[in-house]
Give the backbone structure.
Amino acid sequence: MSGPGRYAPSPTGELHLGNLRTALLAWLSARSAGSGFLLRIEDLDSGRSRERWVGVQLGELGRIGLDWDEEPVRQSERHALYEEAIAELRRQGLIYECFCTRAEIREAASAPHGDLPDGAYPGTCADLSRSQLDRRRSSGRPPALRVRAGAARAGFTDLLCGEVEATVDDFVVRRNDGDFGYNLAVAVDDAEQGIGEVVRGADLLDSTPRQFWLFDRLGLDPPGRYAHVPLMLGPDGSRLAKRHGAVTLEQRTGAGEAADERQATGPGQSVQEVVGEMAASVGLVPAGTECLAGELVERFSWRSLRQ
Ligand code: GLU
């Protein structure tokens, strides 16, 4: 691994145990390889991110035994880097304004469009004439900014999922409320921070080809290794969700804001029991083990992971 690993939570609530397990695996992979580990606070979504969740999430990561090498960076403080990346794409003629509403996008995307993946933006605003553009601009609705990807193919190799390749759609790099897009910020940050390994949930697998397209256009070095890890499942085999009951560390252990709830339901689990359960769910330890993250470093290997 040629650079640090990282975990990049969005501060929109307590970490779900699925997120916490992803963080645990990212940390174990980095630390078992003797590498650095960084946290990045992905507070791009100005409507949903809250400062108080930053503290709560860092507390949760610390309680399960993770540590990090530097003060976490925050995407909200890195807007200049994202502006610069958009300016570079614009110089290359790869940015256009999109005035579509959500409903228009849904409707347009439901029609088949060549080999673009389902739900991909079909390029409605890609080639507006001067007068169409003027009319839309004068409507008062601010535009989102999209890339002109030209249905390019992009791919990468994932440690767990193998070769992944996809057609890149004209994804959003800046939303019409001014917030920067996830793929833009993540690609810029992973390259700028010199990240060596990205470990994240398999729900983001489809986004990664877009990030590779960006690395390429922006002349950035991508992280050397990617692992998209399975999502944590509930007892019924479906993705672990609120309806499965206690799904955060606080809810399980009865600490933090959920403490009052716990008093009604009896004593909670220990943090060690919760970490053991997360580790057992991927086959790192036998069921019933109680441990913190540090005790798992020696026995971690991607090969031994049960998916
Ligand atoms: N911020 C994203 C999330 O919390 C993770 C993004 C990433 O790891 O690239 O789901």
Remarks:
- The pocket of glutamic acid is lined by residues 8-10, 42, 186, 200, 204 (CB under 6 Å).
